[in-house]
Design a protein that fits this description.
Strands 1-4-5-6-8-7-9-10-11-2-3 form an 11-stranded mixed β-sheet, with no helix packed on it. A 7-stranded mixed β-barrel has the order 13-14-17-16-15-18-19. 36% of the residues are buried. It is mainly beta and 303 residues long. The protein folds into 2 domains: 175 residues, no CATH class; 111 residues, Immunoglobulins (Immunoglobulin-like, Sandwich), CATH 2.60.40.10. It has 1 helix and 19 strands.
Length: 303
């Protein structure tokens, strides 16, 4: 009998609850290396079958491939230790597979014996987990063999070929299968540049300091620019912060301008100030924040 449940949300919710309970009881470090966001697989497949009595497979055979309109996505950890595969079958099936090298190592070609359930494997134990369609193991033992694996930056998975064998709840019956992933070369990481102009103005009307500069990028992104301004005048410390945002496109620096508001009653004045600046954007290909910073001396004239 094949059990079904209302989508991935239920199992993922259970996984989040399990992790929260583990953290509440003082267990930490279950997930080594932050996970990158899931990337669609260009050429991929997952196939497995099981012995009669195996809980996960129900003794049946399953096969999914991007060639047959099944959707496959993959996620790698930033430390290249874990690869997680998700399959949404065109027929409504859904499965998740996790392969993890032991703590402190990276996933590499070779055979990993003595695997236990990911992400609860510890120390020198490899991690393995195959589940879906409403079925999962509470505990498991198994092994997997990686014949090829190649990572890009920030957890990008370019290639994976592996076979695996999983036994639920210490049983003799097993599910056995193979996974294949082939993706294009990874996109370049976001490069972000920030420049602060060495001139600015101090308003005689409202005491604000107007600053300007440019940002540059190698892919289109929304960039937030923020920072602090510090000035010493007649033994008085004047400080203020500023922020703005611009749409950056590759090819040429994009101008930004912002006004720093003094925090006290003393206005910014003509003369030198120290400007700390930070530009922040999210890499659209890797969903990771990228920051550029600069600290310069800027001369303010009356404005």
């Amino acid at each position: 009998m094949k059990l079904t449940m209302p989508g991935r949300a239920l199992v993922r919710g259970a996984a989040v609850l399990a992790l929260a309970l583990a953290m509440a009881t003082g267990t930490t470090g279950l997930l080594s290396g932050s996970q990158a966001h899931a990337q669609p697989v260009t050429d991929g497949s997952l196939a497995f079958s099981g012995d009669e009595g195996d809980w996960i497979s129900g003794g049946g055979s399953y096969s999914y491939s991007t060639d047959t309109q099944d959707k496959v996505s993959v996620t790698g950890s930033s430390d290249n230790r874990v690869v997680s595969l998700s399959v949404d079958g065109a027929n409504g099936d859904w499965w998740d597979l996790d392969l993890a090298a032991p703590a402190g190592t990276t996933l590499a070609p070779g055979t990993y014996d003595g695997a236990t359930r990911y992400p609860f494997n510890e120390g020198a134990e490899p991690g393995l987990s195959l589940g879906g369609n409403g079925r999962g193991c509470n505990t498991l033992t198994g092994s997997f063999t990686v014949t090829a694996v190649e990572f890009g930056p920030l957890g990008y998975v370019k290639e994976l070929d592996a076979t695996f064998e999983q036994h639920c709840e210490g049983g003799e019956t097993a599910a056995r299968g193979e996974v294949h992933v082939a993706n294009p070369a990874p996109p370049a990481e976001l490069g972000l540049g920030l420049a602060v102009a060495l001139d600015g103005t101090a308003s005689t009307l409202n005491g604000k300091a107007t600053l300007h500069g440019t940002v540059s990028c190698n892919k289109p992104v929304h960039v937030d620019v923020a920072g602090e301004v510090t000035q010493v005048k007649r033994k008085q410390l004047i400080r203020g912060s500023y922020s703005t945002s611009v749409e950056c496109v590759p090819g040429a620096p994009v101008a930004w301008e912002a006004k720093a508001v003094p925090t006290g009653s003393v206005p910014f004045q003509r003369g030198d100030v120290e400007v700390e600046a930070r530009a922040t954007a999210t890499d659209p290909d890797y969903d990771q924040p990228v920051t550029a910073g600069e600290t310069v001396a800027v001369h303010l004239s009356k404005g």
